[in-house]
């Protein structure tokens, strides 16, 4: 299946000169969505990535991470923006091109030694994925890889990530 054909390009969003890769057109396609999850799972199996938990980054990482966790027989853990989780959290502040941001995960969600795969819809500059990896590793988990639907290769985000397998299904 040609996943790229199911992803809509929106020029000049959110600002002039940016081409936004819109996955809502992929999500509305039942065969495309099923293929995406199955393909991610297949790649994990081929790379012999065994996981205890899938960590999905807010918010589109939830869309792909939860069904992937189901498919792989693992748990799913959401990593959220500041103030979205109700119980005690681990947190990490990190730099963005335009300022800072914060990610949080429940303190009882991950346990030292857990094998974790981080999932999101897209890797661009790698800032959020890198921060999530740091958070997971500070908790004492073993980061076993990353899974992305889309990779914007020109932005070279993967060079900021730890040396673990990185799966990307579509490259621009």
UniProtKB/TrEMBL annotation:
Pathways per UniProt: Purine metabolism; AMP biosynthesis via salvage pathway; AMP from adenine: step 1/1
Pfam entry (one): Pribosyltran
GO CC, one annotated term: cytoplasm
Enzyme Commission no: 2.4.2.7
GO biological process assignments: adenine salvage; AMP salvage; purine ribonucleoside salvage
Similarity field: Belongs to the purine/pyrimidine phosphoribosyltransferase family.
Function: Catalyzes a salvage reaction resulting in the formation of AMP, that is energically less costly than de novo synthesis.
Complexes and interactors: Homodimer.
Protein name, as recorded: Adenine phosphoribosyltransferase
Source organism: Sphaerospermopsis reniformis
